[in-house]
């Protein structure tokens, strides 16, 4: 992927952080035409999806970019890269009418709230969920060429 993804991105590595066994490299192009719409907070591997927890005050922009297939998202193993579909989720903490917590839910971004929710504790976290497993040398990259990208790989 490092060779195939973002072929026109001349990247400057801004930051490499470690999250729960994964390295996240954040890169920017030399001449940025748009601001980053989110910040990666942490990463968690689920059974079939990689959950990328993000913070964003531009979540509607993130949703639109995903719907418009504007993000490039690929996984690679060695020299073989594959495009990946990504879904956007929101973390919702629900409480009943008495203020008692009834659960934390991960729901599709545009889905209705669970019926047990009478009040919502708005979370500032959202989840990008590409259908990919990061292991055995496989990595994952997402970005908007030529502006920026993130590369996630095992430590």
3D architecture notes:
The chain is mostly beta strands. It has one domain. Helix content is 6%, strand content 54%. It contains 1 helix and 11 strands. It has one helix at residues 59-67, and strands spanning 11-19, 22-29, 39-45, 50-55, 72-77, 80-83, 86-95, 101-108, 119-130, 139-144, 148-154. The strands form 2 sheets. It has a 6-stranded antiparallel sheet with strand order 1-2-11-10-5-6, with no helix packed on it. A hairpin with a 5-residue loop joins strand 7 (86-95) and strand 8 (101-108). The longest helix is centred in the middle third of the chain and has 9 residues, at 59-67. It starts with 10 loop residues before the first strand and ends with a strand.
Overall geometry comes to: globular
Structural class: mainly beta
- Please tell me the total number of domains: 1
Write down the secondary-structure element order: EEEEHEEEEEEE
Summed up, the helix count is 1
How much of the sequence lies in strands comes to over 45%
Largest sheet: 6 strands, antiparallel
- Percent of residues in helices: under 10%
**What is the averaged pLDDT score?**
78
Termini separation comes to 17 Å
* Number of β-strand runs: 11
The largest beta-sheet arranges its strands as: 1-2-11-10-5-6
Question: Runs with pLDDT <50, length 5+?
Answer: 1-11
**Mind telling me the C-alpha Rg?**
17 Å
